[in-house]
Amino acid sequence: MKPTPEELERIIHQTLRSLPPRRAPHSLESRVRAALEARASLPWWKQSFARWPLAARVAFFIGSAGVAKLVLMAAIWVMAGFDGAQFAGAFSTQFAWIQTASAIVDGFGNFCGTVYRGIPPLWLYGGLAFVAAMYAALFGLTATAYRMLYANR
């Protein structure tokens, strides 16, 4: 009588479970450890992109986008026959936001300068002294709390 597929699966599973586990070669562990240590000792820029620091990944994406933009701009400039007027006309609208942002930052800087010049110097020195006193009080309270809570243990 021929066994059913479920019985055959059970027999094979029992037979394979009864086999002793195979031993790995003695040199395998040392080779794996050496490979892991060599990979861990690599500088971050030679490791996988996922292991790069976040700031480096962000900078890479921004730099890549900038390079792609420059390549596209160069291609358009070449297709325009190296004509500077056509090139400037094609990209003037794309860089208009830089002038707007510059005007906003300049206006905010002028506002801050006007407000700063309107504050009497005595108030500035008094505010600085108040911040220093509060910092010293925070340091003192923290030291006292530490002594009361942890120093006696």
Describe the structure.
The protein is mainly alpha-helical and 153 residues long. It has a domain at 47-79. The protein contains 6 helices and no strands. The longest helix is centred in the last third of the chain and has 31 residues, at 121-151. The radius of gyration is 35 Å and the shape is flat.
Short description:
The chain is mostly helical.
State which percent range the strand residues make up.
under 5%
First-to-last CA distance: 79 Å
Radius of gyration using CA atoms only? 35 Å
Shape: flat
Helix-strand string? HHHHHH
Structural classification: mainly alpha
The low-confidence parts are: none
Main β-sheet description: none
Mean pLDDT, all residues: 87
- Strand tally: 0
Query: Number of DSSP helices?
Result: 6
Topology, please?
Elements: H1 5-18, H2 26-40, H3 54-79, H4 84-91, H5 96-118, H6 121-151
Distinctive features:
153 residues, mainly alpha, 0% strand
